[in-house]
């Protein structure tokens, strides 16, 4: 379980709109309307917050000052860069490993420091959100390509899903 105070903090409409704007700037355009009234965040520990809209939908995660969508809320967004990995990469990724070149099967073009969503290749299921360590044009046969920031099964996922 996460160590921390688990403190709830009300967000003003302005703050919530700023969070949505930051997500859009990072490449995540919303396709769903969110309830601004009653939006809040839960501070789970230093440098970790989970953001909810007024209808208790988990929207985003703020980790060390970076804001990314919650992996279970990817369907609320479009326009993001996609990277597809083979089945052999799923277990390491969902145990926190960074995304390595050999596991990547396909990808949208991306630049260093872009946020990307990692999908399982055959079934188009999102499994992680990460940050590119290199440009997609520089991917070789070996090496780290994407820093894993948040994945299915991590502490944030377990906290939100009650597991």
What would you say this structure looks like, in words?
The protein has 163 residues and is α+β, with helices and mostly antiparallel strands. It has two domains: 7-77, Pre-PUA domain, domain 1 (Nuclear Transport Factor 2, Chain: A, Roll), CATH 3.10.450.120; 81-151, Archaeosine Trna-guanine Transglycosylase, Chain: A, domain 4. 17% of the residues lie in helices and 38% in strands. The protein is built from three helices and 13 strands. It has helices at residues 13-25, 87-93, 155-161, and strands at 7-10, 29-30, 40-45, 48-52, 58-63, 66-69, 77-78, 81-85, 99-100, 104-107, 115-120, 125-132, 144-151. Strands 9-13-12-11-8-10 form a six-stranded mixed β-sheet.
Quick structural overview:
By secondary structure, this protein is α+β, with helices and mostly antiparallel strands. It has helices spanning 13-25, 87-93, 155-161, and strands at 7-10, 29-30, 40-45, 48-52, 58-63, 66-69, 77-78, 81-85, 99-100, 104-107, 115-120, 125-132, 144-151. The strands form 3 sheets. The chain has a 6-stranded mixed sheet.
């Amino acid at each position: 379980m996460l160590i921390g105070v688990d403190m709830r903090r009300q967000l003003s409409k302005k703050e919530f709109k700023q969070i949505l704007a930051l997500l859009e700037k990072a490449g995540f355009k919303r396709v769903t309307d969110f309830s601004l009234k009653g939006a809040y965040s839960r501070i789970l520990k230093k440098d970790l917050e989970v953001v909810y809209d007024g209808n208790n939908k988990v929207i985003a995660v703020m980790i060390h000052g970076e804001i990314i969508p919650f992996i279970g809320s990817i369907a609320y967004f479009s326009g993001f860069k996609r990277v597809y990995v083979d089945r052999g990469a799923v277990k390491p990724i969902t145990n926190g490993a960074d995304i390595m070149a050999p596991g990547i099967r396909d990808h949208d073009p991306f630049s260093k420091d872009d946020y990307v969503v990692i999908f399982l290749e055959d079934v188009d299921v999102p499994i992680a959100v990460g940050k590119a360590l290199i440009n997609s044009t520089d991917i070789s046969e070996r090496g780290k390509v994407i820093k894993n920031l948040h994945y299915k099964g991590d502490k944030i996922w377990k906290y939100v899903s009650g597991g």
